[in-house]
Design a protein that fits this description.
Blueprint lengths: L1 H22 L13 H9 L6 E6 L7 H16 L4 E6 L7 H9 L5 E2 L25 H8 L2 H8 L6 E11 L1 E4 L14 E4 L3 H9 L3 E4 L5 H6 L5 E4 L1 H6 L8 E4 L4 E9 H4 L4 H35 L3 E4 L2 H22 L1 H15 L1
Parallel strand pairs: 1-2, 1-3, 6-7, 6-8, 9-11
Antiparallel strand pairs: 3-10, 4-10, 5-8, 5-9
Helix pairs in contact: 1-11, 3-11, 5-13, 7-12
The structure holds 2-keto-3-deoxygluconate.
Amino acid sequence: MKKWVNRLSAGVLVSSMLALSACGGGGNQTAPSSSTPEASKEQAADSKIKERTIKAGIGLNEDHPQGQGLKKFAELVAEKSGGKIKVQNFYAAQLGDDKKMTEALQGGLQEITIPSTSPMTGIVKEYSILDFPFLFNNGEEADAVLDGPVGQQLLDKLPDHGLIGLTYWENGFRNLTNSKRPVEKAEDFQGLKIRTMQNAVHLEAFAKLGANPTPMAFSEVFTALESKTVDGQENPLATIESNKFYEVQPYLSMTQHVYTPFAFLVSKKFWDQLSDEEKAILKDSAIEAGKYQRELNRQVNGEALERLKAAGMKVNEVSAEEKAKMNEIIKPVIDKFAAEIGEDLVKQLYAEIEKARK
Ligand code: KDG
């Protein structure tokens, strides 16, 4: 059964990707049009583009929409640089987890990583606003905020910390899996040992719901679930599928409790050595691949539920009333972080969401 599900998901993924590359993806940002072969050759002939090999690492697998987006990025960079800039991709935390790779960028030991913004709150605390539960109703609202002035303000804080943020990709809406019971109501969180990302908002919000949250690097999650060190974890469906959490987690509750973006990060030490042309190639490629990645991610997350059910997961929906109750319980945590981060930015965030809803 599991092998069948894997084969099926790989097949669906490939056909989804073909369809997407044909239509060019979606998203709100307007990337400059990709270069024609002639333009690429001209650009490459320009000595302002040097022969370079750069390392890009992510925590998720190659078959995940993030992995496919990274592949697309490498292809675009090769095309736009006339083959001069080669991006070497490392998947599945081969270079370390989100925090370790981000530190490697700061130290100039690695050029690119694309972490969830949640563990980045240790570097730029303002990123915590994106961890507020039940903030966005859909991906398009998230795109509007991230591609707008709020997203940009957050990216602008990164250079002081040795990082350049080029754009945002999508991790997505997170759902709870666990080995104990279906979670339908706020009370069902009581006593559940849940792995969270290394993020204070997530930790405090789950604790407020009565759960027992434990922060952990993503690469350790499968083993922690398998050995029952923790009862559950939360992630978008594409990740639950790609990392085979369904093999060790019988229950999937569609909590959709928080939306997580990915930040496309480049080492500032490396960035400062680049010519303007090289910077433009990397930025345009990150934005263009990001449109493809967001679109593919939405498609895969939309289709994965049926495959997870077929793999044996017991799935339950969570009603809007119960989500509202959860949100009410968590509210003091959000208020506390809003005050700490600065009411101005938080007000601007809510105003941007309102604007996107109109
Ligand atoms: O490549 C990104 C992953 O490392 C990570 O961010 C996935 O959402 C994630 C998690 O739960 O750690």
